[in-house]
Batch of 4 targets.
Target 1
Amino acid sequence: AQSVAQPEDQVNVAEGNPLTVKCTYSVSGNPYLFWYVQYPNRGLQFLLKYITGDNLVKGSYGFEAEFNKSQTSFHLKKPSALVSDSALYFCAFSSSGDKLTFGTGTRLAVRP
Amino acid sequence: EAQVTQNPRYLITVTGKKLTVTCSQNMNHEYMSWYRQDPGLGLRQIYYSMNVEVTDKGDVPEGYKVSRKEKRNFPLILESPSPNQTSLYFCASSLAPGRGPRGEQFFGPGTRLTVL
């Protein structure tokens, strides 16, 4: 079955340090990959997506993600973490352009 | 303001008592979907709708019903709720595939349901 996996339940990082939230995929064909963020007591918000083209995708709030076909990964990155980045992050894929299938989520905690 | 609204935001009910969670969007989106979020499982799709009067099952449809009589509304119905339906529910909407950015769904704020 096609899926995305987020191997870390939680990532801890100090403010100002770079952060990485990992995602690997098992999707046939050309995957459409996404990152969404969920702040406390809020719905999910779209961050960025990879469809085709450049492997480095830039999104909202200074986040970016690198699509790596050989490693089947789509890790989310930010050069300098902020305390306000603390949230739950979801990787997702879409095969048909409508249904999104989500990973289990990674909680990011940025300490001051 | 473009948004997806859900009501109620919080609901505590008892087993077997029918309930409806409403979802409404003001963006003229064709596609709407319901998800449930459970710890360690991420979000799983319950039902989705490609347009008015067109609905289909997602990954976990058992125990739920939906209807899409108007483009803006997509209510989720639990005819006989059970404790295993205790969860956080999200409604989402987007333009139809091919008409807008692929995969960019707009989510409501969530409904936390507890079934005793």
Target 2
Amino acid sequence: TQLLEQSPQFLSIQEGENLTVYCNSSSVFSSLQWYRQEPGEGPVLLVTVVTGGEVKKLKRLTFQFGDARKDSSLHITAAQTGDTGLYLCAGGSGNNRKLIWGLGTSLAVNP
Amino acid sequence: DTEVTQTPKHLVMGMTNKKSLKCEQHMGHRAMYWYKQKAKKPPELMFVYSYEKLSINESVPSRFSPECPNSSLLNLHLHALQPEDSALYLCASSQPTYYGYTFGSGTRLTVV
């Protein structure tokens, strides 16, 4: 059974701080997707990484896929209150029709 | 159009009611999904349609019945639900060759 362990589960920081969220597995994934979800809304895709060692940047967010394609990280620089939300990682394999989801990281950025 | 539209946004139904959730996308995506999400949990896959055919049913109770009338529309028919079925129901779509889903904003379902 494929599992994706996401940590930390909860994170409360002050505006301007940096943070990193991790997703780890013993399984190899063909893709790793990161989503952000706000209360009462659907998840919004932030990025998809598919190549081992790949690094993608989205403004203050940096995403990395491990060399072995078993783990990924999301780093936020100088967090802002608008970054508050639930961050979810999801791993795909095969035709990606059935994603394996992490349990999520609930991030609160305080002013 | 880069959106997945779900209606209604909120739904309250009794345990003997029959209702339907609707989902529409015009991005040309050929895979569409129904997910169920409880508070502070990740989405749980229910059904996958690929090229308008049901390809995955995650052992969902028969009181949930999916339908894909065409490549742009996805319905979820609900009948004789239980209070524990109360949740956020999410529709998503994706391209066959692209890794990443576009989610709708969901239907908040309450069963009373």
Target 3
Amino acid sequence: DIQMTQSPSSLSASIGDRVTITCRASQSISSYLNWYQHKPGGAPKLLIYGASSLQSGVPSRFSGSGSGTDFTLTISSLQPEDFAAYSCQQSYSTPYTFGQGTKLEIK
Amino acid sequence: QMQLQESGPGLVKASETLSLTCNVSGGPVSRYYWNWVRQPPGKGLEWIGYIFYSGSTYYNPSLKSRVTISLDSSNNQFSLKLNSVTAADTAVYYCARTVPGQVWPSLDVWGKGTTVSVSS
């Protein structure tokens, strides 16, 4: 299985901050990397697919980059609704695997 | 817009079978891959497996011996069965959709999840 390692596991930030979350794969996965946002009691939401493509309806302050083994999710200016958990997922090969998640909290 | 909703018992006894259903509304179950994903308390998401509308399945090898995913097109739903459960199977269980033929496969529609606890 491909192991996905996310960092940091938690992050405190303020409204308006620029935030970056990283995800590293245990082997090259090309651009088969997706990012999800999830809030307690809610459905996880696809933000980014193919490492850098913005899912329809997702605000442009979210962006993704990277290829191979190293990837980043950036939120350019944090909004109140962005405080949530974020997970990366590889779809290069089955079984699909996720990072352990990053919890983004208000400072 | 397609919506998914999980349902099933919130409490299952150890050694018994966990059974969940995902009801699909706003579109047919045909033409998609249907996934199950879970999140144990304090841990990351774990992909359980999928079923294609044709009936073909793929299961995570870590769970393969205990998992069955099935499709009920007449009721527009699909199901998960996990047998011989233990406390390690306590988790929030999600169903999710994958559109076939995408260059970059993803889980683009999810249910809100249902919590299942395993009691000893």
Target 4
Amino acid sequence: GEDVEQSLFLSVREGDSSVINCTYTDSSSTYLYWYKQEPGAGLQLLTYIFSNMDMKQDQRLTVLLNKKDKHLSLRIADTQTGDSAIYFCAESPANTDKLIFGTGTRLQVFP
Amino acid sequence: DAGVTQSPTHLIKTRGQQVTLRCSPKSGHDTVSWYQQALGQGPQFIFQYYEEEERQRGNFPDRFSGHQFPNYSSELNVNALLLGDSALYLCASSAGQGRTNEKLFFGSGTQLSVL
């Protein structure tokens, strides 16, 4: 089946690292994505990882993929107040262009 | 370079009415996908249009239909509105069909409220 799960809420202090976790079900997914949504805005693609990779780093963002456990995580280093938003994990099953999104994790950064 | 633009930004309708939402893709993009995002949920795929035809469809009833024009812009139509259709409707565009999700750009959405 198609199901992507995320924890609903994460609160961190400014300057700390944030880790947002996600589990997915479709092992055929070739790409896995992290999107950011700020209030009143659409979705912004933060980063994505190809399924044959274990890790991808892009400036403050680090994505870890455990394909065996179907677990994906996003680490944000030196979290800033501007990082406060909802973060969505998404998978893209094989032979389809659609994205399957999780319910989103609301990240709150406090001073 | 304008990104994906959607209109209107907000809309209020009553049950049983029909609604049309519009989307202009990012310049250079020819594929448009529509998603429904209910409050507190992640977006759900409705359908995708490419070369003026519906290419893929999610688990949405026939009340949801669409159209793509020769200039690649698209419309989403919803008939016989239900209260449960209240949501943020997101349009996304990409260049070419197939494995293009890494180049998927989303608009800011149309917030539809059904009373």
